[in-house]
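User:
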Amino acid sequence: MRPGGRPDPRRRRARRRGRAAELLCRWHLRVRGWRIVAADWRCPSGEIDIVARRRGVLAIIEVKSRGDTDSAAAALPPRQRRRITRAAAAFLAARPDLARLALRFDVMTVVPLRLPRHFAGAWRSDE
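Assistant: Predicted structure:
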């Protein structure tokens, strides 16, 4: 927040870019047969960008939007992975009907002028 209570324009642009990237990823997943269970799900222990289901898999998906694929894929530090893992546990506690599905943690990257890339099984919850 800037002095006077106005948000920093760079943060507003980044937030807008992130929302657009998440929308693009949801569209991309739907086209490939995934059903979006939740989007932008928040709890005290963290947040999840996208929860998607296909067949017997429940994917917890983190969306990263950067200028290039390498920096987007590398933008998920261990601390953030732990927060997402805790949020996934809270999500499953709230939705026990989904607990029987195989849980997977994925990353989707969005870079300018390209379709999103989906990295399945980007990390495990025991890391």
